């Protein structure tokens, strides 16, 4: 659900390298965010997922593949609000920033899946 090239760019801008397993780990973070958003949307009796179902913040980084995220929402029986992709990109950016910080704190220059 994420563009690996954009993830690698973001990690490199943080001064780190990317392990081959990092993309799958970030995909897992985005998939978890999708599941949580669907659950929150349905718990509130709605069918359209909005940014506040995903989390705070918005980004136009384009780190997530919008069509795949929308597909996942649709498979769960939900529609996608216009502001949802910005919030999902913010989730991906925050996950990358956290992973870079953990790698640096552990004295490594390579972001691994365990950092996510």
Nutshell version of this structure?
By secondary structure, the chain is mainly alpha-helical. The chain has 5 helices and 4 strands. It has a two-stranded parallel ribbon with strand order 1-4.
What this model shows, in words?
With 116 residues, the chain is mainly α. It contains five helices and four strands. The chain has helices at 4-13, 22-43, 51-54, 66-75, 84-105, and strands spanning 17-18, 48-49, 79-80, 110-111. A two-stranded parallel sheet has the order 1-4. Strands 2-3 form a two-stranded parallel sheet. Helix 2 crosses helix 5 (84-105). The longest helix is centred in the N-terminal third of the chain and has 22 residues, at 22-43. The two termini are 15 Å apart.
Question: How confident is the prediction overall: mean pLDDT?
Answer: 97
Strand order, largest beta sheet: 1-4
Basic shape: elongated
End-to-end separation? 15 Å
Task: Using brief descriptors, characterize the structure shown.
two-stranded parallel ribbon, about 120 residues, mainly alpha
